[in-house]
């Protein structure tokens, strides 16, 4: 915490406020109340911190779509090919030119190559977690795992800071919450994601619990709501706990969601034209990304979705060929669709995975876990287009330029949403925790620094 609290000369004398004559008069007053000079300055520092830790204000980005590729997507077979490396490093797949001069990506990403001028490819992401669970924790929370505290996910922090919009859940997971690390952590369970419970790629797709039960009309629905409120009031007078508050929040949001025709329709992917559904692709990648666009357009602040299985210790070429073309079609369609609807400027689209894969192809024609360097991709929400940030070395083994750590990525993402990374939230035991442990805004990735 050193240097982060203004008004404490122990940490940084340059941040200490010089007392004015009025301040000394105030000290005299509070001294009469039993406060020492040191206590006075601590109170002053606390007031400064409360200003920093006050309500967040929306930034250029109003929504986020986080696309997570579970298993550890190989950077060499996606965003960071090494065509000049020896075959045992570059692998069997080839690379193609993009719309951006000098930038090449995997052969399967043909449509993405045509919208490369709208995305930022970060080729220098790095952390030290080679286990799936720990790497996943990093990429969903922005924090390294801790044995004593469960940290909140990006989506839950956004839910906490801004709350619902247009009667829609602030945070939605497609098709379901992929990991405990996508949850609220030490925050109240009322900031948990709303999970669809079904895959929009299924022909009979229907979001769980979205419709009124059979035989229940609007009148009975309202009556039940009033009865529930009476019960909640009774228990609220008897006991106060996070569980009760959370349940009340859940019920209130559920009623708002079910009672709003516009909100219910946001989840109805059948409202999209057949032509647009075909453009995205009638598969898991296409329909999940299309529903994500539909939700942010309606007002959802944070959508987290997963696609594929990328833990390719063997047969990496075949595993990539079976999954990446469908994603290429869906992702390029999403960026184009957001752009033509005027939503790209206000929607961050982030692609991540828990780590990358080993530089050298193994004995089973695959790659193993490798957290030293891998790639993430960002688009929209004030991030630059047509850019490669950072680089890996010639064999994709380590960052060569501008290493990107999780703290800086998180700080920059929150910055675009209007959330201060150094803002503190309260964890159990009344212990304040920074939203991001440390870090800074990476201005080089942003349109407006």
Commentary on this structure:
The protein is an alpha/beta fold and 449 residues long. 36% of the residues lie in helices and 14% in strands. The protein has 13 helices and 16 strands. Strands 6-5-7-1-8-11-4-12 form an 8-stranded mixed beta sheet, sandwiched between helices. A two-stranded antiparallel sheet has the order 2-3. A hairpin with a 6-residue loop joins strand 2 and strand 3. Helix 10 crosses helix 11 and helix 11 packs parallel to helix 12. The chain is globular and about 60 Å long. It starts with 20 loop residues before the first helix and ends in a 15-residue tail after the last strand.
Report a brief summary of the structure.
With 449 residues, the protein is α/β, with parallel strands linked by helices. The protein has helices at residues 21-32, 37-52, 87-90, 110-114, 132-141, 154-162, 218-238, 242-259, 261-266, 274-280, 284-298, 316-340, 406-417; strands spanning 63-68, 95-97, 104-106, 119-125, 171-174, 194-195, 302-306, 347-352, 356-357, 369-370, 374-379, 387-389, 391-392, 399-401, 424-427, 431-434.
Q: Give the assembly state of these chains.
A: single chain
Instruction: Find the structural class using helix and strand composition.
Output: alpha/beta
SS elements, strand count: 16
Spans of at least 5 consecutive residues whose pLDDT stays below 50 are 1-41, 47-51
Radius of gyration: 24 Å
The order of strands across the largest sheet is 6-5-7-1-8-11-4-12
Q: Could you spell the SSE succession in H and E letters? A: HHEHEEHEHHEEHHHHHEHEEEEEEEHEE
Q: Helical percent range?
A: 25-40%
**Shape designation:** globular
Counted by DSSP, the helix tally is 13
Query: What is the rounded distance between the termini?
Result: 25 Å
Q: Largest sheet, if any?
A: 8 strands, mixed
Overall mean pLDDT: 85
- Proportion of beta-strand residues: 5-15%
């Amino acid at each position: 915490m050193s240097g982060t609290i203004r008004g404490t000369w122990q940490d940084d004398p340059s941040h200490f406020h010089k007392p004015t004559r009025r301040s000394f008069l105030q000290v005299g007053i509070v001294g009469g109340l039993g406060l020492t000079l040191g206590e006075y300055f601590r109170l002053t520092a606390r007031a400064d911190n409360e200003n920093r830790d006050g309500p967040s204000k929306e930034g250029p980005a109003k929504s986020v779509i986080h696309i997570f590729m579970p298993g550890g997507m190989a950077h060499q077979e996606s965003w960071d090919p090494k065509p000049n490396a020896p075959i045992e490093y570059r692998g069997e797949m080839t690379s193609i030119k993009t719309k951006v001069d000098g930038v090449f990506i995997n052969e399967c990403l043909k449509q993405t190559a045509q919208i490369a001028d709208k995305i930022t490819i970060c080729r220098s992401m790095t952390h030290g977690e080679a286990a799936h669970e720990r790497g996943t924790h990093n990429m969903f929370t922005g924090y390294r795992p801790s044995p004593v505290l469960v940290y909140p996910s990006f989506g839950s922090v956004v839910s906490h800071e801004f709350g619902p919009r247009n009667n829609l859940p602030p945070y939605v997971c497609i098709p379901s919450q992929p990991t405990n690390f996508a949850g609220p952590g030490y925050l109240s369970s009322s900031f948990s994601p709303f999970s669809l419970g079904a895959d929009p790629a299924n022909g009979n797709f229907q979001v769980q619990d979205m419709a009124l039960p059979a035989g229940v009309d609007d009148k009975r629905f309202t009556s039940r709501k009033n009865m529930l409120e009476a019960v909640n009031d009774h228990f609220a007078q008897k006991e106060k706990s996070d569980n009760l508050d959370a349940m009340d929040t859940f019920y209130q949001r559920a009623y708002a969601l079910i009672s709003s025709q516009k909100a219910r329709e946001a989840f109805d992917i059948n409202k999209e034209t057949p032509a647009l559904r075909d453009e995205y692709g009638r598969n898991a990648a296409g329909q999940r990304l299309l529903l994500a666009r539909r939700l942010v357009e309606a007002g959802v602040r944070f959508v987290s979705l997963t696609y594929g299985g990328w833990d390719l210790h063997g047969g990496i070429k075949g595993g990539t060929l079976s999954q990446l073309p469908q994603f290429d079609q869906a992702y390029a369609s999403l960026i184009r669709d957001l752009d033509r609807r005027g939503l790209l400027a206000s929607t961050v689209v982030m692609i991540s995975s828990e780590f990358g894969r080993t530089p050298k192809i193994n004995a089973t024609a695959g790659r193993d876990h490798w957290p030293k360097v891998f790639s993430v991709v960002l688009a929209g929400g004030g991030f630059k287009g047509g850019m490669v940030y950072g680089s890996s070395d010639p064999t994709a083994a380590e960052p060569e330029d501008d290493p990107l750590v999780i703290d800086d990525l998180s700080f920059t993402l929150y910055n675009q949403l209007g959330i201060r990374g150094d803002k503190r939230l309260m964890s159990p035991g009344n212990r304040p925790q920074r939203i991001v442990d440390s870090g800074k805004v990476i201005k080089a990735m942003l349109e407006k620094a």
